[in-house]
Amino acid sequence: MDPNSDNPNIQPTKYIVSKKMDDLFFTVYEIYQFILRFFKEVFIPPYEFKEIIHQCYEVGYKSLPLISLTGFITGVVFTNQSRPSLANFGATSWLPSLISIAIVRALAPLVTALIAAGKVGSNMGAELGSMKVTEQIDAMEVSATNPFKYLVVSRILATTFMIPLLVMYTAFVALMGAYLSVHSNEQTSFAMFFSQVFDSLSFLDLFSTSFKSTVFGFTIGVVGCYCGYNSTKGTEGVGKAANSAVVAAMFLIFVEEIVIVAIVNAFR
Amino acid sequence: MIKEQKAIDRNNPVISIRGLQKAFGSLHILRGVNLDVYKGENLVVLGRSGTGKSVLIKIISGLLLPDAGQVNVLGQEVAELPSRELMELRLKVGFSFQNSALYDSMTVRQNLEFPLVRNSRNLKRSQINDEVESVLDAVGLLQTIEQMPSELSGGQRKRIGIARTLILRPEIMLYDEPTAGLDPITCIEINNLINEVQEKYKTTAIIITHDLTCAKETGDRIAMLLDGQFAIQGTFDEVFASDDLRVQSFYNYNFTE
Fold this sequence. Notes:
The complex is a heterodimer. Chain A is mainly α. Helices cover 81% and strands 0% of the residues of chain A. In chain A, helix 4 runs parallel beside helix 8 (203-229), helix 4 packs antiparallel against helix 9 (234-267) and helix 6 crosses helix 8. By secondary structure, chain B is an alpha/beta fold. Helices cover 38% and strands 25% of the residues of chain B. In chain B, the strands form two sheets. A six-stranded mixed sheet of chain B has the order 6-7-8-3-9-10, sandwiched between helices. The mean pLDDT of chain B is 90. Chain B: Pfam families: ABC_tran.
């Protein structure tokens, strides 16, 4: 006799397409619900201002050394790699324009977002995953605290606010690296370099970069928190949550980059 | 030592469960559980691992939803409560986790302040400090106030977990395996603490355990969960005087190991 035959709630498992496809659609639906819950909770008091500021510090300030280094290297290397091609046409004077467009439109947002996905996303996945499997999230819930608001909303807001600021900072550091390279090779002055940099940028460039960075920040926060908040299976689940947070966030950042660039180019 | 029997009002249950069912996938854990818990009593739920004891108290606290049946806590149907009302109910129902579930990035003081600050936003700093020190004193661990959870022993973590629950002054305490993984001396200390909490804070408690010594020392009444239902209920002696072979084997296993 089936030991569960007396339970009317248990039905044999049926899949709509296949187990993997059903799981994929179910995950997409869960993320959709997760985002909806974020927008619902973000406007309802009480507001966890202290935790939001703490998370902004974690996401923003603590990423500065890594972002500074990678931003600077990106500026220097991109300038050095671009110079020979322009030199073939005697167009090295165009370097500041080329560099500014490349850095502001694409490199700064992408480099910052990818580094943040690796550093911040994995941290969120692991931290929330660990809290989940050790029942700390349940402990918050039973002590009449809304863990979603305290843990998830604060983190998503922090990444959404801080990634655009980090992108601006990365762009500045990368341009400084590029300037040092240009100045040492072409003897271009600081004023001349930055005059060319700003002349070649339009309002649309700055707007699209800000918008893109905000979307990247939101994505990193949502993916990191979703993976951690829904992790299962003990310590193995924590590792998986951290890994999934990085991989999924990086993948989505590239997809969003393609889509946003296509939309912005339609307005040029 | 068997706990001294107290006069308990058996007319007004604070927790009333009828026909509770819960399954995980194809695994049917609870199969029509009926239970009443009366004001002021310590009810011990005994059963082997995996029989759904923890699931039962997670449903009572609203952490899990039942598949079928009614769970009435302090006059409210838990599964039907909107989130705001559920939050208010949770202020009256404390939950002590098996692994303590202390927030490992916070000190003991911050762990205790956390629920208090979020649920009593008008408290002054001095009042918060007094409350924290008072409950820490009640569990005998005032000296650990600035320590991190990682610096505490298993027994101390259990006590801090109980203190964090007590700080909201709950009417009902749910203890999930309070003595699991502890040495015999610490087990006795935790059992004494559960009894002290009952006396000092006038709580009603459900204690989930498979430790018969804990059951004997803390329980006013024992309910034995077997095959997804409460097979037998009564005092410790009444339960283990039963002819049910499953009950006898549970007793023999515990006391002959």
